Amino acid sequence: MPPSIPQPAPRPEGSKPGVGGSPPQGIDKYDAPSMLGNQGQRRFHAMIKPGGSACNLDCSYCFYLNKETLPNGPGTGRMSDEILERFIQQYIAGVTGPEVVFSWQGGEPTLMGLDFFRKVVEIEKKHAKPGQRIENDLQTNGTLIDEEWCVFLKQNRFLVGLSIDGPEELHDQYRVTKGGGPTFAKVFNAVKLFQRHGVPFNTLTCVNRHNARRPLDVYRFLKNEVGSTYMQFIPIVEYKGFEKTAPHHWDHSALPRDGEPASRPGHPDSIVTDWSVDPDDWGYFLCSVFDRWHKNDIGKVMVNHFETLVSQHMGLGSQLCVYSELCGKGVALEHDGRVYSCDHYVYPEYQIGNIKDRALDQQVFSRAQVKFGYAKHETLPKYCRQCAYLTDCWGECPKNRIIRTVDGEPGLNYLCRGFRKFFARAVPEVKRIVAGLQQRPVHARRRM
Ligand code: SF4
Ligand code: SF4
Q1: How much distance in Å is there from the Cα of 395 to the middle of ligand 1?
Q2: Is residue 201 lining ligand 2, measured as CB closer than 6 Å?
Q3: Does pTM surpass 0.85?
């Protein structure tokens, strides 16, 4: 399981102007979405872990493998037919927007076998609502992909996310088998199979302490050798002790200030694992890739961070939860029906229910989950509130807010110095791109 793909996270319905107006007296904003019921369109997203954290690989930075030993966690297991059907029915019933997106993840979801996914498609068809599109995506390490998988994925229009960290020597640094062996050859074989069968796929690259220093080698490889036209770059940030300690339950008094040695990887007192990306390297990585993309590839290659920055500057909002003002609309479903606030928050402290006891939409729009979503904004330190890039960044993901500002205020994002470098470089260019796009006729603006 790679670090999860940041998800789209629209604002809670209650906060949207024109959807139901002000909440009734005595009800605050956290109750508004559940009070408003179906008055507005209800969109949310679920990441499904049908096999829990089970995986055939042992990537050093995986944040999910340990879930099987987490006290009071989901443990090991496979999703039963009963839970699967109950979930699909509840999910389709709960989303009233024009599309429902099923994101199959793990662990490694292909370990469930093709018959499981054949069943998925059948049950989706059984519960489909007229006028609503059903989409499936599958995040995979690619090592179990064969011809039969490709035929299925193509026939059923699954969008595949393939985890690949760059050329062989960079990929094999951390993405290894249970015995510590390399995996590149098998993953690259999946690339060839997808290409041969015309299976649409994008790439997910974990930017870690190692490959962050070679941004152009990674970018060139993904573009020229993998043929990726949609690249997702996810920074690896792992708080030491994340296996047992839920986000925000860490020892706040021990969090270092920005710039102190413990706020970087590789130091004996560091608060992050050794493979976490250094915040300055993250800035260097984004800036280098941005410059190359801006020079040669606008309109040809999509990069998650750049697409969303352009979208924000066009007034269309963030495409990724990490750059949204609020979160809370992307929940994680475990194999046994437990639902968690986000797939980075699969800890007992953030379990919001179980679909056996309460319908999925009621959990997503519950007070607890709406509060979770608002906390992203409400816990921003003053330093972020005064930042020139606040509306581009929104303090990024709360699970990465593990350092203090130089003044000692907690809640600053570990990657902040990298983000500031990136936004300083990219925002002026993005403003120029947007100005150019806005002069085009509307139908020609879709892709940069
Ligand atoms: S905590 Fe929020 S910002 Fe972070 S991954 Fe989850 S939904 Fe996205
Ligand atoms: S760039 Fe840094 S200071 Fe600015 S909003 Fe992001 S995390 Fe906060």
Answers
A1: 11
A2: no
A3: yes
